[in-house]
Amino acid sequence: MDTRFWHQKWENNEIAFHASEANPLLVKYFNALSLVQGSRVFLPLCGKTLDIAWLLSKGYRVAGAELSKIAIEQLFAELGVEPKITGVGKLTRYSTKHIDVFVGDLFDLSRQMLGPVDAIYDRAALVALPEKTRNRYTAHLTEITDKAPQLLICYEYDQDLQEGPPFSISNEEVNQHYGEGYDLTLMASTNVPGGLKGKCAAKENVWLLKNA
């Protein structure tokens, strides 16, 4: 994972990828995970996404992992809460009631550090990683969450027309990463209005991954 790239994005406030509202696809499809209130949802590479505030408002607990300390300081400031900050291995954990975010390299996060989770919501992680890292990431994610069910949102477009991130993730690649351990359902495939970054046609695909 190119940690320097993402640190520079946050340090320079180059965060056009940060949405100003909860993701409409999360709002529309999250109930497909069939979670009860109080369930703990893990968001890998979460940044300061407003999806966290939405999940908290619906009565869920949230766990996150994020490389950038700046992003997480801004997240808690925008939530209006003061986190307790502790060291956990190579990571730093920011915690308040119903939320724990681990700051540092996701690959340094173990199942024991993370604790039990009931589901994964991946909107920003798989699409942020270059191809050479995605196999390692999906195997690690499956391991540390004990193969929790997942709502996965990813882009699909002609990678030759546009450099990532976000990278293009084909349906075949989703099956390659998760087909053995999960039952996969493509919930929706919608055109990105105006194309990806206004440069090329793209689809946004919503996947539901449940234990096989």
Give the helices and strands, then pairings.
Blueprint: H1 3-11, H2 24-29, E1 40-44, H3 51-57, E2 61-66, H4 69-79, E3 84-88, E4 91-96, E5 99-103, H5 111-114, E6 119-122, H6 131-144, E7 150-157, H7 171-178, E8 182-191, E9 202-211
Parallel strand pairs: 1-2, 1-6, 2-5, 6-7
Antiparallel strand pairs: 3-4, 4-5, 7-9, 8-9
Structure commentary:
The protein has 212 residues and is an alpha/beta fold. It has one domain: Vaccinia Virus protein VP39 (Rossmann fold). 28% of the residues lie in helices and 28% in strands. The protein is built from seven helices and nine strands, in the order ααβαβαβββαβαβαββ. A nine-stranded mixed sheet has the order 3-4-5-2-1-6-7-9-8, sandwiched between helices. The longest helix has 14 residues. It is globular and about 45 Å long. The model has no long low-confidence stretch (mean pLDDT 92).
Tags for this entry?
212 residues, alpha/beta, Rossmann fold, 9-stranded mixed β-sheet, 9 strands, 28% helix, globular
Q: How much helix, percentage-wise, in residues?
A: 25-40%
Find the structural class using helix and strand composition. Answer: alpha/beta
Query: Could you state the CATH homologous superfamily?
Result: Vaccinia Virus protein VP39
Order of helices and strands: HHEHEHEEEHEHEHEE
Task: Give a quick rundown of the structure.
The protein is α/β, with parallel strands linked by helices and 212 residues long.
